[in-house]
Design brief:
Strands 1-15-3-11-12 form a five-stranded antiparallel β-sheet, with no helix packed on it. A four-stranded antiparallel β-sheet has the order 7-8-4-10, covered by helices on one side. The chain has a three-stranded antiparallel β-sheet with strand order 2-14-13, with no helix packed on it. The protein is elongated, with a radius of gyration of 47 Å. It is 43% helix and 23% strand. The chain has 472 residues and is of the alpha+beta class.
C-alpha cells in the first residue's frame, strides 16, 4: 500500500500533522497576545464608562460653582390676586408690606356717535392732531375717510402714544375709543382739528361742548371715559407713587405687579429648593461614579469577580482621591457633614435638607462662602477667606477629567498598549505563515522521496516474489 503526503506519497507527513503543529505554535505564541488584547479591549470599554461618569461629576461641580446657585431667589405673597412679585438673582432677602390704595390707570376717551364703521368722519380734506401727554401726532383725512379708516390711520401714525379701536354701543351707535399707551398722570388725550378749522370734521370727533357742565353726556363729541392717575401705595408704611402698576425701580432686582387694592405681605427669600436640587445633582453624579469605580477596582481571588482595573494603579489612585477629598475639603472652617452632606458607611453621599436649610436661615452668606467661596464667619466671630468646598472638589476632579489630564493620558496608554500588542500578534502570525509555508514545501519534498522509496520497495517485492515462485 502506498504512502500519501500533501497529495501523493505517504500517510505520515500529512496536512493534519502540519495543522496540529501550527495550532500548538499559535497556542504558544499568538494566544497569549490575544488574551492580552482582549484585556486591553475590556479596559478601553470600562474606561469609557468611568470617563463619562467623571465628566458628569465635573460638570455638576461646575454648575455649583457657577454664579446663580446661591444667588437664586424665590418670593411668596399673602394674596396673589392683589400683587405679583418676582425677584432676580442676588436681590436683597427681605420681608415687606404693600398697601395699595389706588391702581394706575391710562387715559381713555371716546368719540360721539356714528351710525356705522363705514360712516364718513368728514365732508372735506383736513388734518387733525392727537395730543398724548407731551407728544403730538398729525392725522390727515379726506371726505372719503370712514370711521374704520381713521382708526387704521391713528394706529399707523400714532401707535407710540395711543391705540384706537371701534366699539359698538348699540345698533347704529359706533364710537371711536382712544387709549393712551402709557399709564399714569401726564398722559391726557385731546383731539384738535388744525386744518379745516372744524368746518368739515365730524362734531363727534371734536370736544363735546356739554362735557364740562355734564360729564355724563357722552354722545355729542370727544369725552373722557377714564382719567389717567398714578398708582399710590405704601411700602412698609412709606408712601409711594408710580405712573405704572408694574414697578421695577422700588427695590433692586425686584419687580412688583399691582393687581388690586389692599394690604399684602411679601417675602423675598433665598431659593433653598434650587440649591438643594443642584447639590442633589452633584451627589447623584458622585455616587454613580464611585459605584462604577468600586466595581472596576474590586480585588478578588475569583477572576469572574475581579474588577477590570483591580491591578491598575492609576484608576485605583483616582478612586482613593475621590474618597479622601470628602474629608480634606473645607479649609479647616468646617466639614461637609456640618452643612447637610452626609457620607454613609458605604461611601455614598446624601443630602439632609433640614440641616442645610437651618444653616442657610442662620447665616446664608457663610454657607455660600463655605460651598462656593467668599468670606466665612467662624463661630468665634472671626472671618476667613475660603475657596469653597465645591471649588476645591472641582479642582481635584479636574486633575483627572479635564482635557489632557490623567484620564486622557491613561486612555492614550491603553491605545498604545493595544496597538503594540496588535502589531506583535500580526508579526507572530506572519512568522508562523512563513515558517509553515517552508514546512509545507519540506513535507512535499520528503513526500516525493518517500514515494520513490515506496516504488523501489514495490519493485524489489515483485522480484523476490517472482524468484520464490520460480523455485517452487
Amino acid at each position: 500500500m502506498g504512502i500519501s503526503s500533501l497529495g501523493a506519497g505517504s500517510s505520515i507527513l500529512t496536512q493534519d500533522v502540519l495543522d496540529q503543529l501550527r495550532a500548538a505554535d499559535e497556542a504558544k505564541f499568538v494566544a497569549p497576545l490575544e488574551r492580552r488584547l482582549k484585556a486591553e479591549t475590556d479596559k478601553s470599554t470600562a474606561f469609557d464608562v468611568v470617563d463619562a461618569y467623571m465628566d458628569n461629576m465635573y460638570e455638576s461641580l461646575k454648575s455649583l460653582t457657577d454664579y446663580g446657585v446661591f444667588e437664586s431667589r424665590t418670593t411668596s405673597v399673602s394674596n396673589e390676586d392683589r400683587v405679583v412679585v418676582t425677584a432676580a438673582e442676588s436681590s436683597d432677602v427681605q420681608d415687606f408690606t404693600l398697601d395699595v390704595s389706588i391702581l394706575a390707570t391710562r387715559e381713555i376717551v371716546q368719540s360721539g356717535q356714528f351710525a356705522s364703521k363705514d360712516a364718513s368722519v368728514s365732508t372735506g380734506t383736513g388734518t387733525m392732531e392727537i395730543n398724548v401727554g407731551s407728544e403730538t401726532y398729525s392725522i390727515d383725512y379726506e371726505a372719503t375717510t370712514t370711521l374704520d379708516d381713521l382708526k387704521e390711520l391713528i394706529n399707523k401714525h400714532a401707535s407710540d402714544g395711543v391705540t384706537a379701536s371701534i366699539v359698538q354701543i348699540n345698533s347704529g351707535d359706533f364710537r371711536l375709543v382712544l387709549s393712551a399707551a402709557n399709564m399714569g398722570e401726564g398722559q391726557a388725550i385731546s383731539v384738535t382739528d388744525v386744518l379745516g378749522a372744524g368746518e368739515t370734521l365730524s362734531a363727534a370727533l371734536q370736544p363735546d361742548p356739554d362735557a364740562a357742565e355734564d360729564p355724563t353726556n357722552l354722545v355729542d363729541g370727544m369725552t373722557s371715559v377714564q382719567a389717567a392717575v398714578n398708582a399710590t401705595f405704601t411700602y412698609n408704611g412709606i408712601a409711594i407713587e408710580r405712573t405704572s402698576n408694574s414697578i421695577d425701580d422700588l427695590l433692586g432686582g425686584v419687580t412688583i405687579e399691582l393687581k388690586e387694592t389692599g394690604i399684602t405681605q411679601v417675602s423675598v427669600k433665598q431659593n433653598t429648593e434650587h440649591i438643594a436640587e443642584r447639590m442633589t445633582n452633584f451627589i447623584d453624579k458622585y455616587n454613580s461614579a464611585m459605584e462604577q469605580l468600586n466595581t472596576d477596582t474590586k480585588s478578588s481571588t475569583e477572576a469572574s469577580e475581579r474588577g477590570v482595573f483591580s491591578s491598575d494603579s492609576t484608576i485605583k489612585a483616582m478612586r482613593s482621591a475621590m474618597v479622601s477629598m470628602l474629608s480634606s475639603v473645607g479649609e479647616s472652617v468646617g466639614k461637609i457633614q456640618d452643612f447637610g452632606i452626609e457620607v454613609g458607611e458605604d461611601g455614598r453621599l446624601s443630602l439632609d435638607s433640614e440641616i442645610l436649610n437651618t444653616k442657610l436661615a442662620a447665616d446664608s452668606t457663610s454657607v455660600q462662602a463655605f460651598f462656593v467661596g467668599g468670606t466665612f464667619k467662624k463661630e468665634d466671630g472671626s472671618t476667613a477667606e475660603v475657596t469653597g468646598v465645591f471649588a476645591e472638589m472641582e479642582t481635584e476632579v479636574a486633575r483627572y477629567s479635564k482635557y489632557n489630564n490623567v484620564l486622557d493620558q491613561f486612555k492614550e496608554s491603553i491605545k498604545t498598549r493595544y496597538d503594540s500588542l496588535n502589531e506583535q500578534k500580526t508579526k507572530a502570525m506572519e512568522r508562523l505563515d512563513a515558517s509553515y509555508a517552508i514546512q509545507a514545501k519540506k513535507f512535499a519534498a520528503y513526500d516525493l522521496i518517500i514515494s520513490k522509496f515506496n516504488n523501489a520497495s514495490d519493485m524489489f517485492s515483485q522480484m523476490i516474489n517472482a524468484e520464490i515462485a520460480a523455485k517452487s
